[in-house]
């Protein structure tokens, strides 16, 4: 009998083709975000599930699927929505999609950085609101990047790609994280390791690239924000809950820091209403990996992961315990 493969959202055709060669594919029709009840009903009897970061994958999910479930393949690099120990305890392989979205996400992070430091949104809103304006030497002045310090929290693949872009803009790099980067990476970026407190105190822009874990939830809270320079900017393209959004909105409104660029939010898809009122924030709706090329590459990698496990092979990018 062909394995049952459940795909929880519409995915690019090349990925679907790979899955259809390997088994009987089920997709929600029409495409929509499945409620927990719908998700649990859909995965019943599945051998493989290809999921997205919106699906809660935990012990109850695995139990709803049944003991034949072999793999959960998420189309994302972040997997804070998955209870990995609960799945591993049931001998279910978990895979994610690192690498293929590095450049797209780094581009978006740098786009937000430029948008907020050069006040692009403010300028566009002014024009769209048909407000009067004229060029003058003090009009909508932003902050230049050359010679400024970028603090990277989490110098993994995406953090490193952001740091490379920043070097091309003449920025100096400091970084923090659970461990030191390899010597050649430090050398290439002329990057200095600093403890978080020192990085926050000394950076002109702080960009977050650590995964969301119990240790990084609200890593950037009111105290962390208060320790940053009043001229500094915060960029978040990782996961919303790494930042205490309430504290950030207050810090931005009171000039504790100069601005923020945010692609992710604490209670997505909700955005803290105060953030929507502030001019010194650049906002995008979780678009980090949102290019046609990248989303196709992510879905194809997720499909290859699922198919490999169904064939009894080692998947290209498993999540380790
Ligand atoms: C991820 O992959 O974790 C991003 O947030 C979405 O592409």
Plain-language structure description:
The chain has helices at residues 13-22, 36-43, 59-65, 84-89, 102-117, 120-128, 157-168, 183-189, 196-202, 222-227, 245-253, 273-277, 292-310, and strands spanning 4-7, 24-26, 48-51, 71-74, 93-95, 149-153, 172-176, 192-193, 205-208, 233-236, 259-262, 281-283. It has 2 domains: 4-98 and 292-310, 3-Layer(aba) Sandwich (Rossmann fold), CATH 3.40.50.720; 102-283, 3-Layer(aba) Sandwich (Rossmann fold). The protein is of the alpha/beta class and 321 residues long. It is globular, with a radius of gyration of 21 Å. (2R)-2,3-dihydroxypropanoic acid binds next to loops.
Indicate the topology.
Blueprint: E1 4-7, H1 13-22, E2 24-26, H2 36-43, E3 48-51, H3 59-65, E4 71-74, H4 84-89, E5 93-95, H5 102-117, H6 120-128, E6 149-153, H7 157-168, E7 172-176, H8 183-189, E8 192-193, H9 196-202, E9 205-208, H10 222-227, E10 233-236, H11 245-253, E11 259-262, H12 273-277, E12 281-283, H13 292-310
Parallel strand pairs: 1-2, 1-3, 3-4, 4-5, 6-7, 6-9, 7-8, 9-10, 10-11, 11-12
Helix pairs in contact: 1-13, 2-3, 5-7
The structure holds (2R)-2,3-dihydroxypropanoic acid.
């Amino acid at each position: 009998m062909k394995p049952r493969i459940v795909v929880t959202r519409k995915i690019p055709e090349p990925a679907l083709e790979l899955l259809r060669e390997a088994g009987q594919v089920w997709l929600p029709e029409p495409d929509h975000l499945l409620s927990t009840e719908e998700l649990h009903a859909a995965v019943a009897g599945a051998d493989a599930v290809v999921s997205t970061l919106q699906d809660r994958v935990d012990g109850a999910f695995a139990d709803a699927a049944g003991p034949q479930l072999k793999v959960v393949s998420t189309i994302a690099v972040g997997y804070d929505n998955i209870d990995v120990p609960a799945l591993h305890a049931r001998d279910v392989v978990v895979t994610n999609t690192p690498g293929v979205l590095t450049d797209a996400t780094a581009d978006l992070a740098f786009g937000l950085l430029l948008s907020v430091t050069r006040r692009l949104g403010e300028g566009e809103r002014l024009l769209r609101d048909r407000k009067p304006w004229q060029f003058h030497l003090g009009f909508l002045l932003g902050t230049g990047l050359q010679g400024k310090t970028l603090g990277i929290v989490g110098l993994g693949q995406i953090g490193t790609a952001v740091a490379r872009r920043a070097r091309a803009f003449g920025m100096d790099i400091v970084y923090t994280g659970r461990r030191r980067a390899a010597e050649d990476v430090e050398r290439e970026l002329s990057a200095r390791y600093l403890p978080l407190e020192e990085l926050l105190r000394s950076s002109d822009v702080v960009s977050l690239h650590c995964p969301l874990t119990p240790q990084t939830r609200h890593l950037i809270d009111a105290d962390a924000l208060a320790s940053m320079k009043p001229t500094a900017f915060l960029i978040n393209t990782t996961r919303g809950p790494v930042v205490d959004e309430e504290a950030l909105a207050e810090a931005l409104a009171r000039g504790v820091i100069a601005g923020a660029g945010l692609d992710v939010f604490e209670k997505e898809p909700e955005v803290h209403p105060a953030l929507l009122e502030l001019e010194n924030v650049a906002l995008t709706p979780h678009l980090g990996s949102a290019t046609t090329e990248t989303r196709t590459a992510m879905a194809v990698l997720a499909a290859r992961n699922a198919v490999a496990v169904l064939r009894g092979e080692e998947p290209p990018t498993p999540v380790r315990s």
